[in-house]
Every structure is written in structure tokens, then in C-alpha cells.
Amino acid sequence: MKLATIGTSKITDSFLEAVKETGRMTYEAAYSRVEEKAKSFSERHGGKLWFTSISELALSNEIDVVYVATPNGLHFEQVKALLAGGKHVICEKPIFSTMNELNQAFRLSEQHHVFLFEAIRNIQTPIFKRLKEELLRAGKIRSAVLQLIQYSSRYDLFLQGHVTNIFSPEFAGGALEDIGVYPLYVAVTLFGAPDDAAYYPVKLPNGIDGSGTLILRYDGFVCTVLCSKIAHSDAPSEIHGEKGTFSINNPSNISGLYWTDAHSKEKKLIAENIADNDMIYEIAHFADVIENRDVEEYQRMKELSREVLRVMEKARKQNGILFPNDRV
Ligand SMILES: NC(=O)c1ccc[n+]([C@@H]2O[C@H](COP(=O)([O-])OP(=O)(O)OC[C@H]3O[C@@H](n4cnc5c(N)ncnc54)[C@H](OP(=O)(O)O)[C@@H]3O)[C@@H](O)[C@H]2O)c1
């Protein structure tokens, strides 16, 4: 499978290092708005081609699949062009800002017989899959607190008056979109779509959520998702069942999974992550689905993207956090 990339930041470097590790795709080309950057990025990762036009990349016969890692607010237009050109697309989280965009993009991917994936690496890791397999052991779940509270150096810039993409409504940023999406994916993958959701954001002066608490109501329990880019916490995330508690260190980079028995209070390590770069798992998964045309698994992934985006769109609109893409 011949791969191209859009976006030349650190996350695309990490993705390509993982691609090399898996050996499942061959890197061919980079796109950048700046030709010199496109050329040097492509060459640095062993690519032979570079583009400064997304429509030319979309129509290139040299490319099968494109990884998109640009500011969230740009995903939709870029992905649409790629799908229309017959390319499979792996788009970074959060895939889009609205259900309308998601539905349009999935329709387009069907018309062109290509796959469209949201790159959400945490749910593809073996350690997360182990948690999913073991969940029944907890008995009736009675509460869950999933948190990602990570101070961003870009907040320092924000405080100095420089608004980077991730703190900008213009580019569909904010704490929920940027990092709340990881614990929300954990919740939806483990517990399904919530019966109801309410978001309580802490807004910055430009109206974006610097942090927030998302309450997901399920039959018999409530799952609380905490996300922040303006404070720091090392506290674990926990799922509390009547028989015991699962805890993970961090819902985006799960390195340890623990079990505490409710009666004995004994705490045990169940599994550890061994990969340095956990993007290898999502890449292998996307390659498997494409190569085997695994429609059943693809439908499952699409449904997860739908349920997560449904909650995120509702959560921000409840609070008047509006993006230009809301007009699409
Ligand atoms: N999976 C993960 O662990 C992970 C981690 C970080 C980020 N992400 C996701 O990856 C995506 C990119 O995040 P990021 O923080 O890397 O974003 P970023 O640094 O703001 O931008 C990424 C790339 O997009 C292009 N770009 C930036 N501003 C643009 C603009 N105004 N117009 C057109 N293109 C622009 C740039 O490429 P050129 O200058 O070469 O055109 C840049 O290298 C987001 O969706 C984010 O959620 C995922």
C-alpha cells in the first residue's frame, strides 16, 4: 500500500516511524503548503514524491492511502478531496466537528469504494483490548472517572497573546476536541453510546474550552470525563464495579492496567504496554481492514466515530462553542 501524508508536524513524524516499524505501507509522498518543506519532509522519511496541491495528490496514481494530520478544522475539506480522488484516508482525531461532515464523508467514501478511518490510537492497543475483554470481571459498573489533564506548552503562548490552532475556535480546537476525545472513545468503546451527555466547560477569553467536565449518563452509572489543557494531573482513570476496580494511568497512552478487588482491596498489575510508539497498532489495524476488505470491522469503527462525534458536537453546542465548520 502506497502512503502519502498531509501535515508536517511531529505527529506525522511519529506516524511514519510507526509505519516503518510495521512494514505494512510504503511511504511515497508528502504534501505541504510550502514546496521546500514538502520535499525535505518526504525525503527525510524515504519518500520520492512531494505535492503542494491536495487535488493533485488526490488524483495521483502513485498513492493508495493518505494520512491527514492537520488542524481539526481543515480535515473535512482535505478528506473530501482525497476521497473524491479515490484514496483511502486515515484522518487524525477528532475526525470532524459535525455529524453532517461525517455523514457526507462516509457517503463519499462509499461512492468511491474507499475506506475512511479516524486515527484514534488508544483503542487499538493490546492493553486497551485486554481491558475490554476483562471488563465483565468488575460486575455491575457503578461509576467511572476517565481523565486527561495535561498542561499544554501552547497555553503559555496563549497567555502571551498568541493563539495556536489547538486553542482556536477557527481551527476547531479546545480541550474536548483535542484530548477529551481519548477518554470519550474509551467510554464509548467500553460502555456504548451514553443515554445522555452534559458538558461543563471552563472557557478561555476567546470562547474555547481550556478544560471541562463531561458527564455521560448510562443505565446504572455515570461516567465522568475530565479533560484539560490548562492544568496537570497524574491521577489514574478508574472504572468502578461492584466486584472491583480497573485503573489505567492515562487514557491516551495506557501503559499499565491494574485491578483492585473490591473485597480484599488487593491491587494487581494485569498488563503493561511494551511498544514505544503505540501508533503501530492502529496502522496494522487499518492495513488489515483495507487488505481484507473487512466490512464488519469497518462498520464497527464507523459506528464508534459516529457515537463519539455525536456526543462531542452536542457537548460543545450546548455551551455555545461554535466553529466555522458548523456552517457546512
Ligand atoms: N494521535 C496523536 O497522538 C496526535 C497527537 C497530536 C496531534 N494529533 C492530531 O493531529 C492533527 C494535527 O495536530 P498538530 O498539533 O500537529 O497541528 P499543527 O501543528 O497546528 O498543524 C499540523 C500541520 O498542518 C499544517 N497546517 C498548520 N496550520 C495550517 C493552516 N493554517 N492552514 C493549512 N495547513 C496548516 C502544517 O503543515 P504544512 O505547514 O506542511 O502545510 C502543519 O505541519 C490534529 O487533528 C490533532 O488532533 C494527534
Notes on the protein architecture:
The structure is a single chain. By secondary structure, the chain is an alpha/beta fold. It folds into 2 domains: 2-114, 3-Layer(aba) Sandwich (Rossmann fold); 123-274, Dihydrodipicolinate Reductase, domain 2, CATH 3.30.360. Helix content is 38%, strand content 26%. The protein has 10 helices and 14 strands. It has helices spanning 10-22, 35-44, 54-59, 75-84, 99-111, 126-134, 153-159, 175-191, 279-292, 295-318; strands at residues 2-6, 26-31, 49-51, 65-68, 88-92, 116-119, 141-149, 196-203, 209-218, 221-228, 237-241, 244-248, 256-261, 267-272. The strands form 2 sheets. An 8-stranded mixed beta sheet has the order 8-9-10-7-11-12-13-14, with helices on one face. β11 and β12 form a beta hairpin. α1 crosses α9. The chain is globular and about 60 Å long. The chain starts with a strand and ends in a 10-residue tail after the last helix. The model has no long low-confidence stretch (mean pLDDT 98). Bound molecules: NADP nicotinamide-adenine-dinucleotide phosphate (NAP).
Protein traits:
single chain, 14 strands, Dihydrodipicolinate Reductase, domain 2, Rossmann fold, binds NADP nicotinamide-adenine-dinucleotide phosphate, six-stranded parallel beta sheet, alpha/beta, 26% strand, 328 residues, eight-stranded mixed beta sheet, 10 helices, 38% helix
Please tally the β strands and state the result. 14
Topology order in helix (H) and strand (E) letters: EHEHEHEHEHEHEHHEEEEEEEHH
The neighbouring-strand order within the major sheet is 8-9-10-7-11-12-13-14
Percentage of β-strand residues: 25-35%
Catalogue the ligands. NADP nicotinamide-adenine-dinucleotide phosphate
CATH architecture descriptor text of the largest domain: 2-Layer Sandwich
CATH homologous superfamily label of the largest domain: Dihydrodipicolinate Reductase, domain 2
CATH class of the largest domain: Alpha Beta
By helix and strand content, what is the structural category?
Answer: alpha/beta
Total of helices: 10
Kindly identify the CATH topology of the largest domain.
Dihydrodipicolinate Reductase, domain 2
| Cα separation of the termini | 32 Å
Shape: globular
**What's the Cα radius of gyration?**
20 Å
Uncertain parts? none
